[in-house]
Amino acid sequence: MKFGLRVRGGLAAAFIMFAGPVALPLASVVLSSPAAAQTVNSIEVVGNRRVELETIRSYFKPGPGGTLDAGRVDDGLKALIETGLFSDVKINRQGGRLIVTVVENPVIGRVAFEGNKKVKDEQLQTEVQSKPRGTLSRPMVQSDAQRIAEIYRRSGRYDVRVTPEMIEQPNNRVDLIFTIEEGAKTGVKSIEFVGNNAFSSYRLKDVIKTRETNLLSFLGSGDVYDPDRVEADRDLIRRFYLKNGYADVQVVAALSEYDPERKGFLVTFKIEEGQQYRVGSVDFQSSIATLDATTLRGYSRVSVGSLYNVENIEKSVEEMQIEASRRGYAFAVVRPRGDRNFEAHTVSVVFAIDEGPRTYIERINIRGNTRTRDYVIRREFDISEGDAYNRALVDRAERRLKNLDFFKDVKIVTEPGSSSDRVVLNVNLEEKSTGDFSISGGYSTTDGALAEVSISERNFLGRGLFAKASVTYGQFARGYSLSFVEPYLLDYRVALGLDLYQRQQLANNFISYGTKTLGFSPRLGFQLREDLSLQLRYSIYRQEISLPATLSDCNNVAAGTLIGNRFVPFNPTPAFINANGLADPNGGLGCFANGEASLPVRQELANGATLTSALGYTLNYNTLDNNKNPTDGLLVDFKQDFAGVGGDVSYLKTAFDAKYFTPLVSDIVSIVHLQGGILNKIGNTQLRMLDHFQMGPNLVRGFAPNGIGPRDINPFGTQDALGGTKYWGASLELQMPFWFLPKETGLKGAVYADAGGLWGYQGPTSWAATGEVNTPGCIKPTRNPNNAGTCLGLQLDDQNKVRTSVGVGLVWASPFGPLRFDYAIPLTKGQFDRTQEFRFGGGTSF
Fold first, then answer.
1. Which residues in 138-164 are b (16+ Cβ under 10 Å) and which e?
2. 128-142, 516-530, 631-645: which range is least confident on average?
3. CA atoms of 107 and 794, how far apart (whole Å)
4. 211 phi and psi, to 5 degrees?
5. What whole-number distance in Å separates Cα of residue 475 and Cα of residue 105?
6. What pLDDT band is residue 29 in, cutting at 50, 70 and 90?
7. Sign of the alpha-carbon dihedral angle for 620, 626, 630, 631
8. Would you say residue 21 has pLDDT above 60?
């Protein structure tokens, strides 16, 4: 115990600082007579101020005959001390009098915290048990100090020091001050794996959540040592091995050792891998007489010859059990069994279907949801009170609740009900913030500098609704969007989405014109299976094109001629140029001197704003192991849009996109990307140039945006890309880590080869107007009859040529957002294609 003096506001106040463990107060017993029992005539209490006299006397109860022996005095003394109301108790017996002298514990005037910057006072006040106006208890104070230290340790500050101090005040009152030295965060300096032969340490670091400390760790918290997270990592490693065929795997230990020199923890996972197994056979058995087990074979995701995968077995059990319930076998239980063949390294999988206990759900209790409405949680269950208890449906509900991303933690536990055939489901939740405000910035070689401000809420009003508003402003792209999603339309598992948007694309190095689009799109989403979804949509949007006056001032008509819905004068430039591109004061091509946009672009301008009304759908198939950083699985999108439900245009547009990820050796992941599309004309309506597919590096890297496919090659024009009605693309990419760099840098390299083609332009090729002489694909000038044979309209290059390229890339999952750098060299290209060997794109939210 240390003594000192603290000065506050010029007044000196004595205080006591407890630096070590605090012992119970010392009590003394002084008996004036050695007699075992004496008659007590009175009990006197000395020193009490707040505690009533009779309350203290009640702890000393005489025995039969009014005697109070040493044992009863000792028992009363201990009971009095255990109340925590006194710092000292003394007993003295003088004749027939028992004198109890007490020193009351002081009353706490206030509880304060000093030195805490990372944890707010409000959070600490809810954790400590010592409260203002309560009695000071030294053991409780020490317990509070340890509890505060534990709060800091949970946030990774193991170097924290908490010192409780008491400042005495008049009238036996004290102020309790907890002085906190927070210390720096204690990070994980290294993560090692022992016994891993099948997978490298680099690959296993992808599986776990704990990260090693690096220069950019201050932007995250994954490197902060958390024993609970390390323990959870053990299960993640085990699940990863079980998913890849290692049925005997054991993560024997996760050892954490603090290194004083490095001032951090060294974490080591010890693994016993065992053998890798494949599925030798799959069998189905049923003890329910009326249920043929083989009819459930179609719900199994396990196939003979495939790697033994616990996740596939669990999903098969769930699907089969749910299907059995749908068929009327509500209590059917599917139990998987695996018989290992150690020599052949195979597992014979048997799905045994038995009649389970007839148990019903008595009640579903939801706890911890202070903001989210109860019905938002209950609608994720396919069962309710009174239904048969089905563990597979309960597990599915728990997974759905986690996928909502409304809660930090979700756990559904069962407890016995009011009878042996009843169970109670307790849904324990811990809510988290679901609102986001972000300011995003980025730059790419296509769109230039770009900034976005957005605000979104995933659980709007606690009703499970999604709402988002965003504004984008950039060098070449601007606009805004409003989105709203109701995930359960009319209490059905159907998502209704509404989008309102405006986009403006400005002219840049790749296109000579700008576009402005204002649209509205409602959509309906259906989850057909966990890996298959369908979206139906309707889109209506108004689109118009803009051009600088200098690129649309050349028309082969007399002044004042009506073209489309407006009058356009013939306004040649003062300097005339002949067909050879040379100055010709006697005539020539006139307004082509300053360049001219392509015929389809000028026709879009002349036609004014166009209204498109379209119905469409998208089928999505997704088996990726990780949507953000996939290493295994298939992602397929198939979409079609039919325009012509009113509006000014008609077409059928179909597009297909598939990516297949598979891990190879030494942490190398291969990516096969296939894509294709076709635009079909409907009826007699002319296809617009803007409705065509526009391709560039999104099809074959190494080419500029809009750099591939049909193009106007008029030497006096802007040579705009016109797009095509058919395209295909294929790409093979290998992504690999840089093994010589720390995993936490997030850097990967890529090598790839691309091939593709775009062709089939079906937009306008001539512009018929009064006074013009036209031939398909060309507008002949009428100003100078001597040059009537010179073609200055559309000169179309539309070769069905295969474009190919090879390249390398750098992929960085940086704290500032995903960044990618590509350098690709075209191997084959069209004569008039435009290339762009280096490409960069990236952005961030903060």
1. bebbbebbeebbebbbebbbbebebbb
2. 128-142
3. 94
4. -125, 155
5. 71
6. very low
7. negative
8. no
